[in-house]
Amino acid sequence: MSHGLRKMIISLCLITLSILSGVLGFMYIEDYPLLDSFYMTAITLSTVGYQVTKPLTDNGKIFVSVYLFFNVGIFAYIVTYMASYVFEGEFRKEFYKYFNYKDIMKLKKHVIVCGYGRNGRRACEELKKQGTPFAIIEHNKEIIDKYIDVKAMPVIYGEASREDILIKANIKEATHLISTLPDDAQNVFIALTAKELKPEIVVISRLNHQHSEKKLRKAGVNQVVMPDTLGGRHMAQLITKPHIIKFINMLDGIEGGFEVAEFYFEQFKEKFKGKAIKDIDVRSQTGANIMAVGKRDGGLQINPAPDTVLKKDWYFIVVGRKASIEQFRKTYIK
Length: 334
Description:
It contains 14 helices and 10 strands. With 334 residues, it is α/β, with parallel strands linked by helices.
């Protein structure tokens, strides 16, 4: 339950308690019937000053005095909350969260990112850059309020290991799940729950301790990533292989406007299916190059031979400048 919704419920409970205590007080102290008691409670709370149904006894006057002071505190709390709710953006945030959820349920072939820490944030940045739809699950409300623009990124507040939260993230329509939590046990629970709800979903999980990899694999994780190992390896390779790293950075679009893209057999236009690489003339038509080919469930061929044929269940890794990749999409992809 969100902080704003909890405060709203507290406010409603206080108002209900105030009305009930007023009605019961007038019935018990002044012996008013129910309708008169409700009427007296209404004019006391609203302070409109209408005439009372009958003169109050001394006990009744004491009750009304205490009741008024009691309600001044209640209404001060409610007014303060409502002001902050409207003017400090709480209402706007809750409004966007509601429509955010409705948008998530419309997603198809999207990625679920569990956790919006350092690694989750970078994963979302890359998915957004590539135009891949995604939904975020984050259990820390402070992170949502501070770092996530709910107007631009779909987010669900809750524990990603819970079935109802994954269902809210529309897991039935998702293709991949990325679990970036710093706790391997939590990543195991998330993978188990996700695979139970959708066995064919591809799960990519952060690995924090090497000895946990076996558990993650048993939980159904398809790929594990150890950020600390990758970071250390990258820093060492900046010294041992500086020019290779520079080349890879260029291919990754960090420098020079290069891009690496992957395409699947079924994405190609019908006239190119079943043809050899040399026959579709990628280089002269687009300026891009097919750098590698491979089967979905098999190995990868680097620098494939010109007579390699575009076959079913194969994918193709294409490299070139961004303009060349865009031309490749226009020329060869449906």
